[in-house]
Amino acid sequence: MKTFLTFILKELYFYTFLFFSVFLVLFTLILGTISLRDILEYNPGFFVILKFYILTSFQLFSFLLPLSSFQAMLFTLQRLKEEKELLALFSLGYTLRDLFKPLFVFIFLCFLATFFSHLYLTPYAKRHGKEIQINLAQAFFEKPIPSKTPVQLTNTFYLYVSQSEKINFDNKMKGVIVLEKKSPNERGIYLAKVATLDLKKGLFHLQNGFVFIQSNYKEIDIIKFKEYILKISREYIKKPDVYIKRGEMSLSELKENLKALKPGSEKYYRYLSEYYQRIFYGFSIFPLLFQGFIFGLFIKPQSRYLLFLAGLTFYLLFYFLYNFFISLGESGKIYPLYSHIYFNSLLVFLIVPEYILIKKKGIAF
Questions:
Q1: What is the dihedral sign for C-alpha 222, 227, 230, 231?
Q2: pLDDT of 292-345, one tens digit each?
Q3: How far apart are alpha carbons 167 and 176 in whole angstroms?
Q4: What is the pLDDT of residue 14?
Q5: Structure pTM?
Q6: Which of 183, 13, 37 is nearest to 106 (CA)?
Q7: SS (H, E, C) the chain
Q8: Residue 57 confidence (pLDDT)
Q9: Which of 13-22, 218-227, 241-250, 287-296 shows the lowest mean pLDDT across its residues?
Q10: CA–CA distances in Å: residue 113 to residues 53, 120, 137, 318, 335
Q11: Is the dihedral of CA 265, 271, 272, 274 positive or negative?
């Protein structure tokens, strides 16, 4: 029995590690690159960008581990059926109950990893990622505009200067080129010998230069000036995601914020839902992997590619349904704790008739 237990667990661990590694690399590169746009305007260094990608991978852990373990369950059972190993095990006297023993061990270990990652690792990674963004924004204002390096001031302004120095709150610059994208069909180029930029007030004073404004890709207006003032809106400073949000708070910080909020208010339900989600998210892996076990026994796909697509589709439906119940709790339509109870109860309710069907019709080899 010990050999049987070890054999099944090795298969499950192998496929889990394989899927988790591939998913982690792909999702980290995609989501990390998308999120990187929030800090590129602050000119981060190489090691800051590398740390940002690592923190992104930590944030994905609690999402990718259930997905990987679910796919591992399907592929392990499929391989055992394809190579007649499952049939051989049953012919030796093993039953479905014997399969439950390694299954329980595997699910419990996945639960522990998912529980602690969602409780501590995910908010830790989100918090430090936001702190990187905040520190870069603060450093951007404290340091002078870098010389001979293109700088994105806002979503519409790009700046290049040959010389720059910081005096109080003003950036004194020489040899200035400013590119402005006013609209998809309208652009402006500003050339100035000297300029002063006050980021806090959002004022850009240009002196002794030219303005080239292109409208509708046809007409170009050229203006020579002694003094020209541009107003720059630092919109990213006003973005709501520049402060620490509930998903980036520790459990103790969530408790403190809940005490300060009015019970029954919209914000109170959102914070309470986040609090329960930290604790009960990991428990959903039990019905998920039991579903994967029964699903793997029941289906007989023509190829492993179709098996992967079937597993991915099922997991996405699971995740969509989970977020649907969570949204009900966040909006206050149901108590946030009940959203987890109802969701897991629904999955358990589906498992019972599926298991009875398997017992009656047998396994699809």
A1: negative
A2: 888 888 777 778 888 899 899 999 999 999 999 999 999 989 999 999 999 999
A3: 17
A4: 94
A5: 0.75
A6: 13
A7: CHHHHHHHHHHHHHHHHHHHHHHHHHHHHHHHHHHHHHHHCCCCCHHHHHHHHHHHHHHHHHHHHHHHHHHHHHHHHHHHHHCCHHHHHHHCCCCHHHHHHHHHHHHHHHHHHHHHHHHHHHHHHHHHHHHHHHHHHHHHHHCCCCCCCCEECCCCEEEEEEEEEEECCEEEEEEEEEEEEEECCEEEEEEEEEEEEECCCCEEEEEEEEEEEEECCCEEEEEEEEEEEEECCCHHHHCHHHCCCHHHCCHHHHHHHHHHCCCCCHHHHHHHHHHHHHHHHHHHHHHHHHHHHHHHHHCCCCCHHHHHHHHHHHHHHHHHHHHHHHHHHHCCCCCHHHHHHHHHHHHHHHHHHHHHHHHHHCCCC
A8: 93
A9: 241-250
A10: 21, 11, 34, 19, 27
A11: positive
For residue 352, give the amino acid letter.
V
The pLDDT confidence band at residue 365, using thresholds 50, 70 and 90, is: very low
Q: Which two tokens stand for residue 322?
A: 């989970």
How many Cβ atoms from other residues are within 10 Å of residue 120's Cβ? 14
For the chain, give the number of residues: 365
